[in-house]
Design a protein that fits this description.
204 residues; 8 helices; 5 strands; 12% strand
Length: 204
């Protein structure tokens, strides 16, 4: 019985080296969704290759490729860091320097460097131009994924939030993500301070 191979954003799959080669082919998944995978081959600065998820899984089985880097846990990256990583990755695949990307979008090189280190700043108003230059849809640049129908159990309030979120344009989605991230950080900090105060009260 075949086991289903779980694919994820950021994964790297390495195939065994062919005869006469020192290393095998390393494929890193860049975008994933709607039954499609976009990946880049390590060591090449070409445009990403797009195949079906089934074709990517078939390559893994046929070459006996091994997972050498797991998917990036979404919870470990802020929206700004994720977006910055995608901008850098797509820029490199397009064979552009930070200066070249900046000139095509009509911004400064320092702004590109600023974004790529996770400080999103005013990236929102340039999202459309960035996506066009990098050859992707704004939604893919923002989320790393195309929409994919999935079965999910949601509470009524979660369903309402998701429905409203999907009606927003990419810029407002980014702002909403950052606002939620700030609220979660504030809540976590407040909880930690509360625990510390309670502990000190018990000692006193």
């Amino acid at each position: 019985m075949k086991t289903t191979i779980q694919l994820g954003l950021g994964q790297k799959w390495t195939s065994p080296p062919l005869a006469g080669a020192e290393v095998g082919e390393v494929r890193e998944i860049i975008t994933l969704g709607a039954g499609r995978v976009a990946f880049r081959v390590e060591g090449q600065s070409l445009a990403p290759t797009h195949v079906s998820e089934a074709a990517f899984r078939a390559w893994i089985r046929e070459t006996e490729a091994r997972l050498t880097k797991d998917a990036i846990p979404p919870a470990q990256l802020s929206p700004g860091l994720e977006l910055g990583r995608r901008i850098r990755l797509l820029r490199e695949m397009a064979g552009l320097s930070q200066q070249q990307l900046a000139e095509k979008v009509g911004i400064s090189r320092s702004a590109v460097a600023f974004w790529e280190t996770g400080r999103s700043g005013h990236v929102g108003k340039h999202l459309g131009s960035l996506a066009q230059v990098l050859g992707v849809e704004p939604e893919v640049l923002l989320t790393g994924m195309a929409y994919k129908a999935i079965q999910e159990t949601l509470t009524p309030d979660e369903n309402t939030m998701l429905t409203l979120y999907r009606q927003l344009d990419p810029l407002i989605k980014l702002q909403a993500q950052k606002w939620i991230e700030r609220r979660v950080r504030h809540h976590t900090t407040s909880e930690a301070q509360g625990e510390k105060t309670r502990a000190q009260s018990k000692i006193a």
